[in-house]
Specification:
binds magnesium ion, Rossmann fold, globular, alpha/beta, seven-stranded parallel sheet, 689 residues
Length: 689
């Protein structure tokens, strides 16, 4: 029952479009668009204490009227503020209207970034406050900062959230008070308010705990409900053993590792058992999970059943398609494989759709959304989910598919301790691939400062001369405009567009450079990625869209800019793009932060190539409840919860869900009605409207 954000006062078409870019379309999306951090508005400081580079607040009197000048077409307003200790120049660019608000002799608070120009301090684009509002209301408050996109500012998001919170109707509480008390959590209504505008750090923590608990709790309820549904469900797709599979394995260009073989055997056993298979293949990046998926799908095909392989991105879907097609062709098996992506023409999609419907297509590779929305199968016996992107996706897929329940294979590179895995994947059997293919050399790592860049470039150049390729990863696509006074000045953050240009200038002309990012047209992405895979590009400058699954064994270097901005799990995933072939590979992490903490975090990656070890070290370093830390991201993507640092709440939520279901299995009791309603709407939302 959520409405468009345009219902919020002050949010028009233009703002709504910006919000849509970050995935916020409804008021419900907005309220769950949690801040990525908070900044504290500090008390005003005396002018003599200011130092360049910091964002500060100052309080004083304007010594004379502000001046307005134009310079190269830019309108500049200048003013001078004095307090007892000194005088400070204030400058605004292309903001002429501010002049009308500035009166000589009047008393103000300004807040903005201080910089040094010709030996003098100046505050640029400061924000203006009335001293009483600033000191009595704002100072000391935690002010939310949000993940932004070009054109969307913190102020816009804050305003919209505030406006919505003022008028929204109260959330019903559905958790028992003693539980809230015991786990130090706020009530839902308060949690939603406080996560955006925390009255204090303590209350922020309570709010966050509640929202984390919620995410886990409903996830657990879904998982457990699914498990009940699946358990001992007999399968309509019982496979028979096929000798052709053994010759397929014998014909592979490599020998399967022991755990790969074990996983394969377990799958064949599951699929022939008469029960529905629900299996997770867990293996670190590069351990060779794809071929296991292929074997499972061929196993289905040999018994006349169709399979669907769902990838989180089109890039990955196209890559899998090419791999599978190659393997099938060289094996001589008569199995047909087709690709379904959004970038295909309407006609192509219709043709593929028909082949799927009439059973001509044995294996269908595509993105989650497409397969589940657009396609009906004639006899879908197996669904494989690769690099599962978000939790809950699995449930979604199963619920979205009509017909008899297919076997399910989930592949994940997320290294999690077994106890966590059992909770999170409670409804699955697990195969672990803990051995890398033979002949792999461990990746060599280094963490360096920006000063090392030049060396890195010449190193990359040398690798390219040897016939190899390189990735360069930047945190952003383009320079996002920072609002004035925002604490996270993004000026120094590498972005794909500028970086590509810069490398073009720095590298010799014959080096071929391409860029890749999420918002590109799918056809373009596909073209770029295929070109890189085919060796037609030497350097690929990209955002984290290459983070999961992309497999180009000839790439031997990955340079990660602003690596301090990424979560460790994410860095590990990114690094997994190299070291996939026989050649020595390298990972260069550029650390632009001066902080010891950043250095210490990155050192974990520097020391270890083992995903599991990295995850546990990260957890140890951050300690539980580090709410301001960089969140883990990657596959285990909850909105606010972090399975590592919130593992204690995960456990509590799991227990609470278990208790609830054992007391009131179908959630019939009056006090559980609200929970049931939410669970149903979650599961319904999953089926995809
Ligand atoms: P991931 O587990 O990260 O999905 P992939 O399945 O993409 O890994 O495999 C990574 C690379 O290793 C691929 O190029 C694949 O062909 C290769 N590979 C997979 N299994 C083996 C093996 N047993 N021996 C050698 N190479 C292998
Ligand atoms: Mg993979």
């Amino acid at each position: 029952m959520t409405e468009s954000i345009k219902e919020i006062k002050g949010v028009g078409d233009k703002t709504a479009e910006l919000f849509a870019k970050v995935g916020v379309r409804t008021t419900d999306d907005l309220i769950h668009y949690y801040p990525s951090g908070y900044e504290k508005l500090s008390e005003p400081e005396p002018i003599y204490k200011l130092t360049p580079g910091r964002i500060c607040a100052v309080e004083g009197v304007l010594s004379k009227d502000a001046s307005l000048n134009a310079f190269n077409g830019i309108k500049i307003v200048n003013a001078f503020l004095s307090d007892m200790t000194g005088r400070l120049q204030l400058s605004w660019y292309n903001f002429p209207y501010i002049k009308n608000n500035l009166k000589a002799g009047a008393h103000y608070v300004f807040r903005g970034r201080v910089s040094e120009k010709n030996g003098r301090l100046i505050m640029q684009q400061p924000k203006l406050y009335s001293p009483s509002e600033y000191k009595n209301v704002l100072a000391g408050r935690l002010c939310p900062t949000y993940p932004l996109t070009k054109g969307l500012t913190h102020v816009t998001v804050r305003k919209a959230v505030r406006e919505y919170l003022m008028n929204k109707k109260e959330e019903k509480e559905y958790l028992p008070a003693p539980l809230l008390e015991r786990l130090s959590m706020s009530e839902m209504e308060k949690a939603l308010r406080d996560i955006h505008f925390p009255p204090s750090e303590e209350e922020l923590i309570r709010a966050r705990r509640r929202l984390v608990f919620n995410e886990f709790f409903f996830f657990m309820l879904m998982t457990k409900t699914m498990k009940r549904m699946n358990q001992s469900m007999s399968s309509a797709f019982v496979t028979r053993p096929s000798p052709k599979l053994l010759s397929f394995i014998a014909g592979l260009p490599y020998e399967l590792t022991r755990p790969q073989l074990d996983a394969y055997k377990a799958i064949v056993k599951d699929m022939s058992s008469g029960k529905v298979m629900n299996r997770l293949i867990q293996g670190d990046v590069g351990s060779g999970k794809t071929v296991i998926a292929v074997l499972a799908m061929l196993n289905a095909a040999m018994s006349g059943f169709q399979s669907a392989l769902m990838a989180p991105t089109e890039v990955l879907a196209a890559q899998h398609y090419d791999t599978i097609k190659g393997l099938i062709e060289s094996s001589g098996l008569e199995v047909s494989c087709i690709l379904m992506t959004g970038s295909m023409s309407v006609k192509e999609k219709r043709l593929s759709g028909e082949m799927i419907k009439n059973g001509e297509a044995d294996i269908v590779v595509g993105t989650h959304a497409l397969i589940q929305e657009k396609v009906s199968f004639s006899r879908l016996g197996l669904v494989v989910t690769d690099e599962q992107h978000r939790f809950g996706v699995r449930q979604r897929e199963l619920l979205g598919l009509k017909g008899e329940a297919p076997h399910v294979l989930v592949m994940s590179a997320t290294p999690i301790p077994r106890t966590l895995a059992l909770m999170l994947y409670g409804d699955l059997d697990i195969s672990v691939i803990d051995v890398l293919p033979r002949g792999r050399l461990p990746i060599k790592n280094c963490v360096v400062g920006p000063g090392y860049r030049k060396n890195a470039y010449s190193f990359i150049n040398d690798e390219i001369k040897k016939g190899h390729q390189a990735y360069v990863i930047c945190p952003q696509v383009e320079n996002t405009e920072e609002e004035e006074g925002g604490d996270q000045s993004d000026s120094g953050i590498a972005n794909v567009k500028d970086y590509t240009k810069e490398l073009g200038r720095l590298f010799p002309e014959n080096i071929r450079i391409a860029s890749l990012y999420g918002s590109m047209k799918p056809v373009e992405k596909d073209r770029i990625m295929r070109g890189f895979k085919a060796g037609e590009t030497d350097i690929l400058v990209s955002t984290t869209v290459v983070e999961v699954g992309v497999d180009v064994p000839n790439a031997t270097v990955i340079l990660i800019e602003n690596s301090e901005r990424f979560g460790l799990a994410q860095l590990h995933q990114l690094r997994g793009r190299v070291g996939r072939g026989k050649a020595q590979s390298y990972c260069i992490m550029i650390n632009c932060s001066e902080s010891d903490k950043a250095r210490e975090r990155l050192d974990i990656l520097n020391r270890s190539n083992d995903g599991f070890e990295i995850a546990s070290e990260d957890l140890r370093l951050r300690g539980p409840g580090d709410i301001f830390g960089i969140r883990q991201s990657g596959e285990l993507e909850f909105k606010i919860a972090d399975i590592y640092s919130d593992s204690e709440l995960l456990r509590s939520a799991s227990e609470a869900a278990q208790k609830l279901l054992s007391e009131d299995g179908s959630l019939e009791k009056a006090e559980n009605r609200e929970i049931k309603k939410r669970l149903l709407s979650l599961m319904e939302g999953c089926v995809g409207a």
